[in-house]
Every structure is written in C-alpha cells, then in structure tokens.
User: What shape does this take?
Amino acid sequence: MKVLVVGSGGREHALCWKIAQSSLCETLICAPGNVGISQVAELAPVGAEDLAGLVALAKDRAVDLVVVGPEAPLVLGLADALREAGIPVFGPGQGAAELEGSKGFMKDVLAKAGVPTAWYGRFTEAEAARAFVREKGAPIVVKTDGLAAGKGVILCQTVEEGLAAVDSMMVEKIFGEAGSEVVIEEFLVGEEASFFALCDGKNALPLAAAQDHKAVGEGDTGPNTGGMGAYSPAPVFTEAMQDLVMAEVVAPTLKTMAEMGRPYTGVLFVGLMVTADGPKVLEYNVRFGDPECQVLMARLDSDLLPVLMAAAKGDLSGESLSWKDECALVVVMAAKGYPGAYQKGTEIKGLEAANAVPGVTVLHAGTKDGGAGKVLAAGGRVLGVTAHGETVREARDRAYAAVDAINWPEGFCRRDIAWRALERESE
Ligand code: AMP
Ligand code: GLY
Assistant: This one.
C-alpha cells in the first residue's frame, strides 16, 4: 500500500513511525512532515491546509489511503475532497468534524444521544448569557463556540468572573469570531482522562486511554499548552469504565451522527472528567491527541494500517487490536518561552545518544533540517521523548535518561510527567 499522512507534528511522526513498521506499507509519504519524519517517510512539500494540493498529490502518487493528522484540514473539508476524488481517507468529513469545530454543536449531539456530560446553554446574545450565569451561579464554565487555539475556555469561580468572561468573549471579542457564540456549562469536578476509539461511520473499535499534562509548569501550574507530556494506560480509566464509555458514549454518538447525515469516520478523541457520578464528556476532538498519540503508538502491538484502512472503507466489524502489557510515557521538550514567545532555529544535539537509551524513541514535533546533519528547532513543542517500560516508573526513568542525553540549552521540559500515576504505583 501507498500511504499519505497529512501533518507535521509529533502526532504525525508517531503515526508514520508506526505505519512504516507495517509489512503492508510499501511507500509512505508525509505532507509536509519534519526532519524526524523524513527518517521513516518521504516528505512532500504540500501544506496540511492546502486541500487542492493534497488531493493532487494523492492522485499523482496513486495513494491507497490518506491519514489526516490535525483538525484544521478536517474542519476545512479535506476528507470530503479526497472521498469525492475516490481516495480512501481516515478522518471525518466537514459535517462530522464540527464535533470539534463547534462546541455548541457537540453539546447538542451529546444531548440528543443521551451521553453523560455537563448541563449547558448556547448563547448568541450577551444579555441572555449573563442572565444564565446569574441564574445558575458559580462555579461555572464559559467557552467560545469556535476553535480558539485551545484558549477559549474560562473556568469561573464566581458569578462576577462568569459575567466578565461573557463580556470578554461576546463584547470585547478577545477570541475574535470564535466567541460570537458561547457555551456556558456546569463546572465538573474530578480527574481528567482522554479515551480514543476508531470509527467507521457505524462501528467503533476501542483504542486506549491516556492522560496528558496541559499546564506548562511542574505541579500542573502556569499557562496551558498543547500538552507537555502524557502516559498510557490511564490508571483512573479502568476496563469497566472503557466498556461503559464504549456503550454509553461512543455508540450513541455514532448512531446520532449517522442519523444526522454526518457519519463519523476516523478517530474519536473523548475528553472525559471522571466524576463521583462516573465519567462525563468534556469535549470531543476529531483527531488523535498530541502528545497522546505518541504513547498510544508506543503501546500498540498490532499493525495499525489494516484498521485505519478498514475504518476508511467503512467496515471495522471483525477487527481487533492487541496492546503491549506495558506503560508508555512521553516527555515533551519545548523551546524556552513556550507557550509565549520563543526562539527558533537553535541547534539540537545528542539525538542519537537519546535514541540509544533502551525503550526510547525520540519523536519530532517541530524540527527542521539545518544541513550537514544538523537538526534545528522550528516550533514551540519540538521533541516528544517517548519510552515504554514494565512500570510507569521504568518508562519515566528511561524517558528522562534520554532527555538528559539531549544537548539543547534553549529547550526545557517538565520533570514531573505522570506524577499522579507514579503516586498510585507507589501506593
Ligand atoms: P476543553 O478545551 O473543552 O477541553 O477545555 C480545556 C480544559 O478546561 C479541560 O481540559 C478541563 O481541564 C477544563 N474544563 C473544560 N470544561 C470543563 C468543565 N465543564 N468543568 C471543569 N473543567 C472543565
Ligand atoms: N493534548 C491535547 C490535544 O491534543 O488536544
């Protein structure tokens, strides 16, 4: 098979790394990719949001399957454009990608499907939104309807904060058009976990759960990032909980989406809060998490390619997956200053030594080729140092041994990835 992976981050490196190991994969192309990905795939210089360019590339190269990594091209309709051209694609069409593109749409789908989630209201008028905040009281959560680079969520401890959040989104428009509509919802208390399932429009195949660390600082402090590290399995997410989520969250969601004429194909990323009343859905994403994908791929024993193809072709029934009986953990190395302003183009050394640590694979998130064998930083999140081990502790120790072998003075990482799981392990 000839496979095209779209994207250029750590998630796409993890997908390419795994797909390249498949005996079914003859040619692997990644557009646009990065230096790390170039070690396992051929790079094509077409941007992830250049829909016409990607369709042309897939046709030119007679690709058998396209795997779309990021949400932006899905929300723009890349999967529809490829399907119209007769090319099998792993990823939802524009109508189904609205599960991530519009929080209000997602909440309406959850309500229709009867999926446990926070109560909510949708508002396009600031006065009605303020009245809802006053009526419900605090704590309360105010969210932009549209995508706001992961920043459009304000957790409000008081009614005053809730009213100020409404004004900043709807009147001052600090998140632009993403805030012309808001969702106001119940503040849920518990432990968060992310669960992933492959979907073919009708059926779903469970992957696994992971937990990530969104805050930039140790002890989960400081501003939110795209994710500074993750681990899988997630101890809070038991096998019984997986069965419950497959039956009461994923299945009714797929049924409702199909009934709405928006069948969901691809990976469904279920963001959950495990509350005292059981797991409740916080959000859906229409793609693999980054860096959660890195740990899922490190733990997956089966070949990934046949199930991606089966999902794309609409028949996952009869497929199954096996997982290594091990833990995986990823430590993200970012450029100093991230998630604020940071320097680009600094040189990273020691990657070979890091990759030589047993059980470690260094996945690239934002790198570029500096010529003469040099690897340069080219983004905020730059590397995902991924390790597996028999215990979380072993995976953690291997990952940090690899981090210590990397010579990149302009980079940093959190030193406490998986602290929650480590505490549980030592109990
Ligand atoms: P989201 O972008 O919707 O995932 O929200 C970002 C983060 O805000 C989540 O990972 C949670 O930590 C937090 N959050 C979102 N919604 C709620 C909620 N209803 N209750 C409590 N925390 C929330
Ligand atoms: N790591 C969280 C995300 O991919 O949205």
